[in-house]
Amino acid sequence: STAPCRHGRHGRPVCAPPPAAVAAPEVLRVVIATVPEGRKMAAVAVPAREVGPGGSFRRYLARLGALRTQPGAERSAGGRRTELHLLFDQLISENCGPAPADVCVLLAQACQLVHFDQEHLVSKVCQLIHHLLNRFQVVVDEQNLNFLLSYCISALKQCSSWTHVEILQALAALVYNNGPKCQKYLQDLLGKMGLLVQFSDPAQPDVELRRAAVHSMANLCLSVPGQPCLDEPYRSVCFQTFLSVLQSSKTSNVDDIVFCMLLQNALKGIQSLLNGGKMKIMQTDQLGSLLAVLKKCMFHGLPGLSIEMPAALYPAPLPQYDRRSPVKQEQPEPAAFKPTGVRKQKKGELAEEGKEDLSDPGNESSHGADVLKPSLESSPCADPRACASDVACVPAGKDPLPSHGTGWKRISSSESEYSDAEGGIQSKMRSYQAKVRQGALACFLSAIKSIEKRVLYGYWSAFVPDAPGIGSPQSLSLMTIALKDPSPKTRACSLQVLSAILEGSKQFLSIAEDANDHKRAFTPFSVTIASSIRELHRCLLLALVAESSSQTLTQIIKCLANLVSNAPYSRLNPGLLTRVWNQIKPYICHKDVNVRVSSLTLLGAIVSAQAPLPEVQLLLQQPSSSGLSNSGSATPHRFNFSEQWRKALPLEGESPENPSGCLPPEPCWLIRLCISVIVLPREDSCSDSDANFPSGSVYEPSPVRLESLQVLALLVKGYFSMAQSYLLELGEVACKCMEEMDPSIQLHGAKLLEELGTGVVQQHKPDSAVAPEKRVPVSMVVTFWTMMLNGPLPGALQNSQHATLQTSACDALSSILPEAFSSLQNDQQILCITLLLGLNHSETPLVKAAAVRALGVYILFSCLRQDVMFVADTANAILNSLHDKSPSVRAKAAWSLGNLTDTLIANMETMGQSFQEEFSDLLLLKMLRSATEASKDKDKVKSNAVRALGNLLHFLQPCHVAHPRFREAIEESLQALVSTVQSEATMKVRWNACYALGNPCPRGSVFVQQVVGLMRSLLEMCCGRGEKANLAGLCRAGGARGDAEPRPSVPPTRGRRRSGASCSQPDACWHASAPRGPSMVPAVLAQAEAVGGRGRTETARSPAFSPSEMGERFAAQGGGKTV
Predict the structure, then answer these.
(1) Basic and acidic residues: which segments have biased composition (predicted)?
(2) What is the Cα–Cα distance from 1078 to 1089, expressed in whole angstroms?
(3) How far apart are CA 842 and CA 851, in angstroms?
(4) Which DSSP letter does residue 666 get?
(5) How far apart are CA 336 and CA 347, in angstroms?
(6) How far is CA 441 from CA 287, 326, 427, 466, 651, in A?
């Protein structure tokens, strides 16, 4: 039979032209009989007329059906086999895309016609299964899958060994994405004596057969969303098989490409097991073995490197087992280095996967010994040597970057005598080796997601570079691949893995600290981590200078952003961020959109890293002339922003020298840059390099503008003192963004507005460190918010089609400075209140939560809290949200209810009994019952509900206590507080409940004795001396000191504030008025004095934690903008 015609798996099916004649099966037999032997194939290959895309396959189905219905005596066995061979060849060469159901039925009928004693036909039909399923991406249905799997398993058992490779290839195609449907065949395949286990055994002499078995096993491990994974015993068998394959060494009689394919299949199998979600590597030996083979495969075939790895890696603070085998000079394989006539590719252009290693030699040399001399088209600096000096200080006597491998870079002219065929083979081998390295990196990325970070960081030194010691070589790490691998895709993969390791590493890296004492007898671990951080900066900046591929450049900058976000720069010597800052500036104007976006992301990470840092503040004050303009014409710029900065003129009515009265000596160039990117049209008419972005837009592509808005928001948040001189201009930017049609631009414009408002509120807090004369004037803040309320902000609040925008607009509206709000016009104040009260009835939980939180902020404004009608309206709105089905809405409503009760106490103190009498008793009773009910909710709701209960109990008058309805509600509230203290809630909730119980119990309450007993038991359970002292103070707060003694101040229950929840008394969430009522039992106080230690001489005014410390302690448990 004729050899099958193989087609690429991803080829697009193209229907053949309509044939000229149609031959029925009966006529076809006559044609076969009359045509000479040598022309049988041409005779039967004449296709029939097709009715549609699947017409030819239905014709083949009819022919197969005709063969099944014919009695065996009517034709010879040889003729039947010949016709099947020819029919299968036609099917393999078919181009038209059939329906998946037709493919499944056809394959089932074909297998029914082929018996196991016809081994050539068995091989051919297995080739047909493999080809059709892969070519047309067909997943076999369960009914046909059962038959075809049974056929393949029986064929493996009955047919000769020479057919097993084709059968296993068919098996691999059948089980692809069908693993959950193969449960009843797993014992035959993966059992103790399973076929795949036998064929994949390390003792298997046929490497191609072993590769096919491992491929089938890897496809069987693929997880399907929503379907069950393999059982644990089978997963363990597969994992050990893959691991043994990766641990095996290549023998001299094994083909290089076949061995690479074997490694690829094993790596894909492990990756599938890890991605399935249930494969958790818990044992240290198992994890160490996996990481050892992955590190070995990461460097597989890398030119100039040959490493020896142990069987397993173990957690260690220093690099281990970094032994390099010398590269044998007697096997240089010069033909692999410079094949002639095959490397014709544009510089800097990323080739397809199959051609990525056939790039221009100059491309590779940028990662070799000449790494500091990138070409003028791809280097971001006019003088590469100057760039290198800015990147890092290279130790004396060491090359900035190790050589790429002498064989790859130093090629003699005599190599031109090698043939193109030899060069093509070597290029193909290098491509397969690169795919092994990429597979190992992808597998490592999946392993990182499956391993707990605290376990992963034990292997930090094995994969992250450290500064080399004197006389010792650089350790092999992920940065070795990023700097030396000739494949851009592999370099990008290594950077993705490094980014995944760095992500979430802030806690681990926080121990880093530069050594001040250089005469220590040992190196502390903190110094080792600091050295590693410095080396990461050096290597990543070297890679940034040397890289020419835009895709890899993007990954380098993203990796730098992850590093900057997690490194503890306040504990390191300054200078690291300066190098990053100066090196990234030219890339803001790179021709590739993704590079520009990632560059802005990195700048955002710098300005948000432990802000404010003095080093970053100095960088922000640098003149713009020291930034982009020094890059020269060598940088691949699309345009130059420096001219556009000069076009951003001061606001109307302001002098250029002093636009807002408080400009720093040097304007912030980054703010000018971001404003120009966001609001100014771009000057060039050329389209962007990325075809995904529209080229006809007047402005920069949307991702660039969005990232610029985020950088502005981060800069305002971390360095408001530098951004405050641009307050009105930034307000105009926010207005312009909220007026645009792009919802994302609108949203980030609202977020910028929120950060601006929050910065002003923080600056005007009573405990602010900013001198009053350096704060933004209130008059300017009034002008700012007048511009917002007369602009697009009300429209954004009413945009029901964009709920996220409404939420951000609510948060922005809640960040108004109270003093500025009182100075707004009356109609603008009414507009704010009306919008928030209306949004409190929104059906979207996010919007409703933001609205009720904003009302909780407004209720603390001094100009509003004495308005009884506003207080009543706000109370009704908060109580409505407190019964919402969304937990987030209830949590925000409980926080606002706590603020509302704070306002009641403040009004009671300032306005006296008149306010208490004017406030509705019915509403007060409703608030008491709602707070009692909320105290039984989740912890995020409880913490503020019990706070509100304490305030309400204190607000009650004697007439309320005497009223039967109030008395019942009081009893229920006290019972709720007692239950909360006795519950297993978080410390924050129980702490607040204890302070609520510090309010006086009504006379005659049946809970007085229960509260006394509860305090006694709590005193006995307290372990810490400070806790006992605090509880003793609480007992005194319950009324033991009589009516004349003032109530102690209480630690706040709020955590860290986000986005400006303003409060006129930010550290007074609890009122500090004098309690009135009966005293606690003296025996409790006696016990408190006995067990409280320091409590005998301390009052509750001296808690174990200061108010600010309490906020820090509970910040992680609080919900909402503030707790």
Answers:
(1) 322-331, 347-358
(2) 19
(3) 9
(4) S
(5) 20
(6) 15, 24, 21, 20, 52
Question: Who contacts 630 (Cβ-Cβ below 8 Å, separation ≥6)?
Answer: 382
Tell me the three state secondary structure of residue 43.
helix
Cα–Cα distance for residue pair 859/893, rounded to 1 Å: 12
Output DSSP code: residue 1092: -
The answer to whether 831 and 789 are in contact (CB under 8 A) is yes
Provide CB contacts within 8 A for 5, sequence distance 6+: 89, 92, 93
Quick one: pLDDT at residue 85? Answer: 87
232-238: which pairs have CB atoms within 8 A and are 24 or more residues apart? 232/278, 234/186, 234/190, 235/273, 235/276, 235/278, 235/279, 237/190, 237/194, 237/197, 238/190, 238/269, 238/273
Region 459-487 average pLDDT: 86
Strands 323-324 and 307-308: antiparallel
| 865 close to 907: Cβ distance less than 8 angstroms | yes
For 452, phi then psi, to 5°, come to: -65, 140
Helical axes 1008-1021 vs 987-997, angle rounded to 10° = 140
Q: Where are the alpha helices (DSSP H) in 935-1007?
A: 939-955, 958-962, 964-982, 987-997
Question: What is the identity of the amino acid at 117?
Answer: D
Tokens of 404: 């790429």
Can you tell me the distance from the alpha carbon of 441 to that of 1107, in angstroms, rounded to the nearest whole number? Answer: 49
pLDDT digits (tens, 9 = 90+) for 503-541: 999 999 999 998 776 667 788 899 999 999 999 999 999
Handedness of CA 51, 56, 60, 61 (dihedral sign): negative
Which residues are registered as beta bridge partners of 324? Answer: 307
- Using DSSP's 3-state secondary structure scheme, residue 379 falls into coil
**Residues 547, 489: contact at Cβ < 8 Å?**
no
pTM: 0.76
Nearest C-alpha neighbor of 601 from the set 550, 556, 643: 556
Structural contact between residues 566 and 502, judged by C-beta atoms closer than 8 angstroms: yes
In terms of Cα–Cα distance, which of 1123, 1120, 1103 is closest to 1112? 1123
- Start-to-end CA distance of the chain, whole Å, equals 79
Amino acid (1-letter code) at residue 515: A
Compute CA 69 distance to the chain's CA centroid, rounded to the nearest angstrom: 60
What's the rounded Cα separation, in Å, for the pair 915 and 488?
A: 73
Instruction: Encode pLDDT of 591-620 as tens digits.
Output: 999 999 999 999 999 999 988 999 999 999
Q: Which long-range contacts (CB under 8 A, 24 or more apart) does 971-977 make?
A: 971/1005, 971/1006, 971/1007, 972/929, 972/932, 973/928, 973/931, 973/932, 973/935, 973/949, 974/1001, 974/1005, 974/1007, 974/1011, 975/1007, 976/932, 976/935, 976/936, 976/946, 976/949, 977/935, 977/946, 977/949, 977/950
Residues 87-146 have pLDDT tens digits of 888 888 887 778 888 889 899 989 998 999 999 999 999 999 999 999 989 989 999 999
Per-residue confidence (pLDDT) for residue 983, from 0 to 100: 84
